[in-house]
Automatic annotation (TrEMBL), chain A:
Pfam families recorded: MoCoBD_1, MoCoBD_2
Superkingdom, taxonomy of origin: Bacteria
Protein name, UniProt field: Isoquinoline 1-oxidoreductase beta subunit
PANTHER family according to UniProt: ALDEHYDE DEHYDROGENASE (PTHR47495)
Lineage summary: Bacteria, Pseudomonadati, Pseudomonadota, Alphaproteobacteria, Hyphomicrobiales
GO function terms (MF aspect): oxidoreductase activity
Organism expressing this protein natively: Bosea psychrotolerans
TrEMBL record, chain B:
Protein name from the UniProt record: Isoquinoline 1-oxidoreductase alpha subunit
Alphabetical UniProt keywords: 2Fe-2S, Iron, Iron-sulfur, Metal-binding, Oxidoreductase
Every 2Fe-2S ferredoxin-type domain range: 1-77
Sample GO molecular function, one term: oxidoreductase activity
Lineage: Bacteria, Pseudomonadati, Pseudomonadota, Alphaproteobacteria, Hyphomicrobiales
Species per Swiss-Prot/TrEMBL record: Bosea psychrotolerans
InterPro entries cross-referenced by the UniProt entry: 2Fe-2S-bd, 2Fe-2S-bd_dom_sf, 2Fe-2S_ferredoxin-like_sf, 2Fe-2S_ferredoxin-type, 2Fe2S_fd_BS, Beta-grasp_dom_sf, Diverse_Oxidoreductases
Amino acid sequence: MTSASIASSTTLSRRSLLAGSAAAAGAFSFGFAIPLTGEALAQGVTPEINAWVVVHPDDKVVIRIARSEMGQGTLTGLAQLVAEELNCDWSKVTTEYPTPGQSLARNRVWGNFSTGGSRGIRESHDYVRKGGVAARMMLIQAAANEWKVPAAECTAQKSVITHKASGRSLRYGQVAAEAAKLEAPKDVALKDPKDWTIAGKPLPRLDTADKTNGKKIYGMDLKMPGMLNAAIKDCPVFGGKVKSFDAAVVRAMPGVRHVLPVGESGVAVVAETWWQAKTALDALPIEWDEGENAKVSSASIAAWLKEGLDAPQAAIGNQVGDAKAAIANAARTVEAVYSYPFQNHATMETMNATALYTPERCEVWTPTQNGEAALAATAEASGLPPSKCEAYKIDLGGGFGRRGAVHDWVRQVVLIAKQVPGTPIKLIWSREEDMTHGRYHPITQCKLTGALDKDGNLTGLHMRISGQSILAGIAPRSIQNGRDPAVFQGLNPPGPEASIGYGIPNLLIDHAMRNPHVPPGFWRGVNLNQNTIYLESFMDEMAHAAGKDPLEFRRALMKNHPKHLAVLNAVAEKAGWGKPLPEGVYRGICQTMGFGSYVAGVAEVSVSPEGKLKIHRIVAATDPGHVVNPAQIERQVEGSFVYGLSAALYGECTVKDGRMVEENFDAYNVLRLDEMPAVETVIMPSGGFWGGVGEPTIAVAAPAVLNAIFAATGKRIRDLPLKNADLRKA
Amino acid sequence: MAKLNVNGKTLDVQAADDTPLLWVIREQIGLTGTKYGCGVAQCGACTVLIDGVATRTCVLPVNAVTPEQKIVTIEGLSPDGSHPVQLAWIAHDVPQCGFCQSGMILTAAALLQANPKPSEADIANEMTNICRCGTYTRVKAAILDVAASGALGRG
């Protein structure tokens, strides 16, 4: 199979169209490469060695990446893994995205496109590396055939194949065409990670330069000839509908071309420019049928969740011994109730997509964490079969889970484009639309009851979670007997994923599901975020109640959890736990496990007499099993603290009259540079497993800080975010 | 109709007087390196230099800019991406998703031009742009690097 056969004529014409639009932009045009099908695919002449590797005659290596780049560095990391096994010259490596339509046409040769759950690398390392090995073997075989020597006598390094006995050598580019004709080897052996020279190294990202000079094209920046721009308003109350709108009021406004319904719940204005569309939309009278949900508020949701904390019905996530009996017979019990709010992902680039619909075909260009899901949304909204649709992925201006499971904006743009066939339509959400139509971090409360014996040892724990299930909102079929297994992330029984780090003799963790009308989503870190806050804050509470050091209290419960313990010990040592601090500075510690990795954190904070918090320093440790690029892991850990601390300090979407109150960054603040603490990262891969790095660390940001605030002030903050709390000394 | 000086060129643009400069730059002039992030001057993704001052353009009407004022967007900061701040950004591998970075770089360039040896407090005060990926530690390191090199502020 060559790339020529997968580059359809439609793709080629689409690409030419885009190249034309760049040239037509006039004096300020700049040559940019739209990341659509990629050079090799579109050229249709360069043979691919296999689905993952294309080698050009000039030795340029194109590595195909099915997962999406949204800042996390997966593009570079996955390329490192393939290049490692390919033994190619790293300086000649570029990457491209295959499209989901091409993958479908080739029996999903590129596997899963989904880029969430920190699984870009951990779920595909095996098959992408095997793709690299297979390509290397085929290139070597092609050279061996030319020399008429056994392939076993040849070696390959840095894109050069050598036959030592005869002193001959050939470059990859010289044998690529022949290699592509060979049958793929069946048995491929992966290198031992200890022999890696490209993978495992702190290489710079492949995609940095264009992000510093304005050349990088995001979905929002796309231009096509004849394209019109759309702005949209969906009913502010989730589940509500459009009753009526008066298009005549805005139809004559500058640039306005169409005023259109979008499904039952939205209205769009289509204009020559987006600013014209938005201006007209703001002036458009719309009457909504808000429905019953308009009666819901944050207070009504909180009351409903509170009732779930003691409800008789609950699904069990983890059970050991008899926690209720242990609590009944305890020398002493500790009880606390925590809560965690809705939050918006607030990607810097708001939701957007461009669609071109004709009765025969529908194409969408969009930043997405899951190309295949974008394609499915395109097919569903257009009414065309997937084989007559295509979704082109564009690198994301932030994803964080918003652009993965649900492609509501793709559905919208297709519904608009269907009403203007033959015209490319670019839909951009305003920040206000983005903030009020998110897929929110689920809202939960948690009641924890701990049993201590007379020596202050933990003998039992009941953790009752009440609140929202993401899966019930997104994938209801995965709910079994009212139980959402994902709710217990970080609290699972011992195992390779999201397991609790403590051996507690009597344990009950259960969940009373309460699903408000606000749509939930996978929000970077997902349920590990609040579960770690609940458990790790409460461990601290129990340690203090028992009169024990929070680190020692934990260690006593971790004898059978060596990997959890190792990261905890690492941060304790690096932070100097127990050693003196500057006056007024206090520490907090915590650990958790999720997305396949073990993480721990220590925060050092001070709180002024006026209650102002300053986070001075964070020490973080992570054991992801294997490390593909330590420099990028450091950046993911730092970024995770920004995301986690933003949530801890400010993150809250409140509900009034059924709709979201916070509409922009002035009401939904996030961490900025002035509040950023120093972050010291310990990367300690213990081998033998593959964990993710994009998310787990987020979960330790808040509890480390909350525990340090308690140490500083004697105040236990149990309701987030901290902006609502009075931190003056108790 | 407005006359603007963008990246050293004088241009005539067609836009309603109250159109924010951001959207004139993106949609009329076609330079998309300047980003829309919030529309309320909170995030700084829309930052350009106007006569050397970092300015948030999402709330600045185009008719508030005179033809004499020199507008520099990320595309015009240097001809080939070699401005000291751009080079420091590459050396430190600062960007993650990159969407906020045009605004970050231009804000940093203006800061260093006005204050070639900024303290950490100066950086914290001036760099109020939002980055959701969390590149702040690298942004700070890159700025301190440029300051230490003395590459800016001697002109």
